Amino acid sequence: MTILLIMLLITGFSLVMGLRKRKPQFLLIPILSLLLYFIVQIALVPAPFFETIKFIFSLS
Predict the structure, then answer these.
(1) Closest by alpha carbon to 28, among 10, 54, 41, 44?
(2) Which of 6, 2, 25 is nearest to 15 (CA)?
């Protein structure tokens, strides 16, 4: 639940800043933070990293 709130805060902050400053670079922040969260969650799996990636995306 806390991750959801953090992601909502990051998204709200970047949306407000992107609209206020009129710089679209702020809109990349939520996407990058979500990507970073997924990478960290994949890295926490006890299996080897590339085998986990193959399992998630069925690349065998």
Answers:
(1) 10
(2) 25
Residues 6+ apart with CB under 8 A from 13: 29
pTM for the predicted model, two decimal places: 0.71
Confidence bin at 32 (pLDDT 50/70/90) = very high
- CA dist 19 and 25 (Å) reads 11
Rg (CA), the chain: 15
Q: How far apart (Å, rounded) are the C-alpha atoms in residues 46 and 60?
A: 19
User: With the CA atoms of 20, 26, 27 and 29 taken in that order, what torsion angle do they form, in degrees rounded to the nearest 10?
Assistant: -140
